[in-house]
């Protein structure tokens, strides 16, 4: 985003849209929810997912009608735009819908922006705490507080791992976790990325859609993290993939101690 005034303008607007979406959710969280299933009993969507999505998409289309949008509740249309050339947004209106329904906490609104295929900024709003994680060209912030990464060792850190990966010991990650201080399972990619940014965990492993990792991947990269698939590739922003994010200096250790590929 260096010296990109157009992207900076979009960042300012996007922060407003996401904060307004968060305020809408906080104001209405005790209203009656309309909950339905998508792919299975634990894959839920609510009327508020759809309303937040409509609010943000309407703003994008009103201000930037040529920009493309990939949003969770609109489904995937992988042929709709060129991810290497177009300007596009990736939106998850409520990340952690089960947490939203059951806990009324620990969920996030996430929005990422790419210009000509290049990542510009990511936004993750911890809705109930009203904490907005965002980046400019060089730095990452939580609200107005600048964040920085303090080097950690696996042995003195916590991991965040998807429950299915942990139960099945996929890529030997469960075995690997026994050499760390433990594992946290939050039920929200956005909240897991917030913990990474705050230094509460050192790595995140999950099976994710593009809207789950786009914003978090951009934000953590600014702090010296890498986001890759378990096969060592850059996530393609199209498919659901096994994805990890962790500090670059720990990648080699991870490869040596698990079945993840560099």
Automatic annotation (TrEMBL):
Q: Which UniProt keywords apply?
A: Hydrolase, Magnesium, Metal-binding
User: Has UniProt tagged this entry with the keyword ATP-binding?
Assistant: no
Q: Which sites bind Mg(2+)? A: 72, 92, 94-95, 212
SUPFAM superfamilies the record matches = Carbohydrate phosphatase
Give the UniProt record's GO annotations in the biological process aspect.
Answer: inositol metabolic process; signal transduction
Q: What is this protein called?
A: Inositol monophosphatase
> Is Hydrolase among this UniProt entry's keywords?
yes
Molecular function via GO? inositol monophosphate 1-phosphatase activity; metal ion binding
CC cofactor: Mg(2+)
| InterPro entries, A to Z | Inositol_monophosphatase-like
Looking up Pfam families in the UniProt record yields: Inositol_P
């Amino acid at each position: 985003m260096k010296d990109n005034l157009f992207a900076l303008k979009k960042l300012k607007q996007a922060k407003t849209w996401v904060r307004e979406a968060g305020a809408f959710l906080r104001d209405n969280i005790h209203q009656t929810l309309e909950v339905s299933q998508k792919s299975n009993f634990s894959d839920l969507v609510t009327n508020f997912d759809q309303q937040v999505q409509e609010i943000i998409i309407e703003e994008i289309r009103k201000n930037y009608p040529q920009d493309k949008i990939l949003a969770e509740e609109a489904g995937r249309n992988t042929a709709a735009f060129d991810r290497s050339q177009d300007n596009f947004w990736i939106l998850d209106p409520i990340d952690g819908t089960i947490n939203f329904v059951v806990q009324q906490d620990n969920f996030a609104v996430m929005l990422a922006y790419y210009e000509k295929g290049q990542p510009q900024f990511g936004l993750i709003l911890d809705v109930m705490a009203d904490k907005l994680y965002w980046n400019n060209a060089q730095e990452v912030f939580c609200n107005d507080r600048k964040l920085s990464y303090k080097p950690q060792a696996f042995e003195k850190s916590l991991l965040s791992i998807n429950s299915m990966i942990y139960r099945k010991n996929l890529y030997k990650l469960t075995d690997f976790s026994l050499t760390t201080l433990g594992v946290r399972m939050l039920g929200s990619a956005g909240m897991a990325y917030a913990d990474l940014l705050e230094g509460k965990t050192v790595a995140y492993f999950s099976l994710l859609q593009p809207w789950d990792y786009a914003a978090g991947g951009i934000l953590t990269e600014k702090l010296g993290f890498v986001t890759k698939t378990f096969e060592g590739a850059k996530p393609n922003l199209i498919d659901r993939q096994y994805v990890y994010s962790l500090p670059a200096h720990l990648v080699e250790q991870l490869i040596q101690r698990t079945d993840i590929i560099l």
